[in-house]
Amino acid sequence: MLALKRIVTVAVMVYLLLAVLFFLFPAVRSSVAGLNSSGSPVDDERNFFYVLAIIGAVALALELVVENLDSSLLRREVGKQDGRINELKAKLYDTHQPTGTSPLAAAHSPSVSYPTAASAAADTEGEPHPTNPPATPTTY
């Protein structure tokens, strides 16, 4: 696909160079247009520009088709590779899971314990609490 894309791109660039040559140099344009020689130079140049426009339209259409085809093939390939990466990640995740615990049990029992209100109350039972603390703090 890459070779076809490069061939089409080179063909379009050659066409553009020739078109610029024909537009910038009237002597070249009239001599190439006179190859058909229908008799009138005006008719020859009109037919020449008509053929030049047709060739340009075909080259542009071919360029667009090849670019879109290449882009869609690349997107499809990237999608396949992303799927393969996700499969490998899932397989790696599954191999690193501990075998003794299920994933649901691990989700419900965190490895780090956080203090709860009950455990904080149990820790401070031995400390004396003032029955009536002062309403305003002491000032120094």
How would you sum up this structure, described in words?
This protein has 140 residues and is mainly α. The chain has a domain at 2-96. The chain is 71% helix and 0% strand. It contains 5 helices and no strands. The protein has helices spanning 2-24, 26-33, 41-96, 103-108, 117-123. α1 (2-24) packs across α2 (26-33), α1 packs antiparallel against α3 and α2 packs across α3. The longest helix has 56 residues, at 41-96. The protein starts with a helix and ends in a 17-residue tail after the last helix. The model has no long low-confidence stretch (mean pLDDT 81).
Q: From the helix content, strand content and strand pairing, which structural class follows?
A: mainly alpha
Instruction: Characterize the overall form.
Output: elongated
- Assign a percent range to the helix content: over 70%
Question: What is the percentage of strand-forming residues?
Answer: under 5%
Average pLDDT, rounded to a whole number, is 81
Biggest beta sheet summary: none
Counting DSSP H or I runs of 4 or more residues, the number of helices is 5
Instruction: Output the radius of gyration.
Output: 40 Å
Poorly predicted ranges: none
Distance, first to last CA: 85 Å
What series of H and E elements makes up the topology? HHHHH
Total beta strands: 0
